[in-house]
Amino acid sequence: MATSRWKPSPFLSASAAVHGAAVLGTLVAPAAWPWAVGALAANHALLAGAGLWPSSRLLGPNLIRLPETSVRRCEVALTIDDGPDPEVTPRVLDLLDAANTRASFFCIGRIARQHPALCREIVRRGHRVENHGYAHSNVFSLFGPGAMRRDIARAQATLADITGEAPRFFRATAGLRNPFLDPVLHGLGLTLATWTRRAYDTRTGDPERVFHRLSQHLGPGDIVLMHDGHCARTPTGEPVILVVLPRLLQTLAERQLSPVTLNQALPHP
Hints:
Elements lengths: L9 H19 L4 H19 L16 H5 L2 E9 L5 H10 L5 E4 L1 H6 L1 H9 L3 E4 L13 H19 L5 E2 L10 H8 L2 E2 L4 E2 L8 H9 L7 E5 L12 H15 L3 E3 L1 H4 L4
Parallel strand pairs: 1-2, 1-7, 1-8, 2-3, 4-5, 6-7
């Protein structure tokens, strides 16, 4: 849990100031209410846009690239979402083992509870299990602060209990969020992490397109997003990650890039 006091981002502070000014302005000059309503509408549109932009830092801290120390070491973080999947995850682990590579698995709490041994196997093989929420709700970005905290805290407790290691990082469903997330994560001692390279491999079953999206301009400091859970299938029915991952790992080796977990890339506070 965080011990320091949460501080809103400059954008959120400015947003609060706009709200205050709009309310005060209508009290002092009631005839100005159309201007106040317009300012509030514009402000809410900006807040919504910031929440719909996964790599935005407007709503608070957001790990979108590895730190400069990792860049100098030519490190790349592999992150794998939406598992554990009893069919796909064991095969992903075998592929990573064959390449002597470590990854961060952002696991869904309710699914982890169904497959606890698989979560423990992820950790046993040297990888990290991180927090992807408990319900993985498609309307997560519409949650209020109470619902958001309950969902993330439940996943945190579940994953820590199963693996014996408390997650350090959180990733929202599809990367979408709202202004309530940052204070919730601060209170739980978690860091928001998104990505630099995304393949949309839950919707695209074409391995060539997925590989191209991940590998084009791939370089030091990148955070790669793939999926073992909810992954798309190739035309022959194979999970697309299982076709793409070996080729991606070979590309990393050819470019002399070192795959790491987020935990390895960022020193403990």
